């Protein structure tokens, strides 16, 4: 069993082809338990194809049928699943930042997948960039707007993110995005985050990245 990701060059917006190619290259080379596992892939004249471990998109997982009235035990189980997923993506993001020196940059619901055993996996490395590299800076600047603005931090919205490049503060752009995704996930399933996690979500959403 696998999941297949296909970018059709004949039907898709070709201006986004460099993002698909980057996702292919990064996912093939970066290995971590909570980063989507690349199994095989090829770029053909008509398409970019990737086969990964079997997963479902986070958006589909959140929409899975659940009873309107659920017991406290079931509600606790849902909360535990969300907390575990949070841990998975935090570890994956930390690995990208610390070991790979990369900003994910495309961290919305479309970048998170759920495996059969309940682990959350980080994918969609379309904008993964080392912003200390001038070529990666140019790439990020060109495609930055492709992330849904609901998950874009203020410095991305107003174009001031370059002011963060002299320090590691630019990595906080991923923290903002992840905080917004997690807040959406908890809200969708009508459960409240634990207090410690809520403190993180509040801090991730501040407008001043250096905080």
Task: Describe what you observe in this structure.
With 211 residues, the chain is an alpha+beta fold. The protein is 41% helix and 13% strand. It is built from seven helices and six strands. A three-stranded antiparallel β-sheet has the order 1-3-2, covered by helices on one side. The protein has a three-stranded antiparallel β-sheet with strand order 4-5-6. The radius of gyration is 17 Å and the shape is globular.
Q: How are the strands of the largest sheet arranged? A: 1-3-2
Order of helices and strands: EHEEEHHEEHHHH
Class per helix and strand makeup: alpha+beta
Binned, the helix content reads 40-55%
How would you describe the shape? globular
Uncertain runs: none
List keywords for this structure.
alpha+beta; three-stranded antiparallel β-sheet; 211 residues
Layout of secondary structure:
Blueprint: E1 3-8, H1 17-29, E2 38-43, E3 47-52, E4 55-57, H2 58-62, H3 72-98, E5 112-115, E6 120-122, H4 134-143, H5 154-157, H6 172-188, H7 195-204
Antiparallel strand pairs: 1-3, 2-3, 4-5, 5-6
In short:
The chain is an alpha+beta fold.
